[in-house]
Amino acid sequence: MNSLPRRLLCSTCLRPAATCICHWAAPVASTVEVLILQHPMEVSNAKGSARLLHLCLPGSRMEVGEQFDEAALQDLLEAGGRQPVLLYPDTPGDRSHGIAPPQFNAVLAPAQVRLVVLDATWRKSRKMLYLNPALQALPRLPLRDTPPSHYLIRKAHAPDQLSTLEASCYALAQLEGTEQGYQCVIAAFDGFVAQQQAQAARGSAAS
Asked: Of 139, 146, 120, 144, nearest to 131 (Cα)?
């Protein structure tokens, strides 16, 4: 029996060639370095925004995993002597599984900072924290007073819930003191969302 032919994948965005998102990439040189830790369940998620974020930030790094090797993760966090800070909301009543995270030194220059982003659902991000004590011990950067999300293709569990790309852009703007520096990336995200909506509409029409 002949097997179905495998779909060609784009070697850059890792999506099927027919749904490639590389044309939406809007490269921006960020002063703050970004480390994206992606949960394995997000790798093949067509609605995920982390790959587009990675394409838009040429200096960023993306690693996939749920529980990382302790020494390897420490090397990723401390590479180049930058201060790692975890992009994560305040969690009143839950002090990072019993470990109170240290305060982030907001006076650090952007070039001294590494923003650590967890690309996962809320539940999976909690598990990543639980399995990786080095992440629990990082100072945190919560976001406040952010614009409404443009993430119209994925159900949010809270009114202020943002995509990985949006949250990272607002965090970078906050750390670097620029309000408009990442608007081109948000615009690229809008294009990506529109593409996903169009594909979903075509699928519904064909069914």
From this structure: 120
- Domain carrying residue 115: 25-206
pLDDT at 206 over 50: no
Number of Cβ within 10 Å of residue 169's Cβ equals 25
- Is the pTM here over 0.70, yes or no? yes
Determine contact, residues 89/122, Cβ cutoff 8 Å: no
The domain total for the chain is 1
Averaged pLDDT for residues 49-55 = 95
- Helices 164-176, 183-206: inter-axial angle, 10-degree rounding: 170
Residue 97 has pLDDT above 60, yes or no: no
pLDDT of residue 197: 82
The CATH number of the domain holding residue 105 is 3.40.1280
Cα dihedral 11→114→189→18 (10° resolution)? 10
Edge-to-edge strand list for the sheet holding 113-119: 61-64, 33-38, 113-119, 83-87, 140-141
Average pLDDT of the segment spanning 67-82: 96
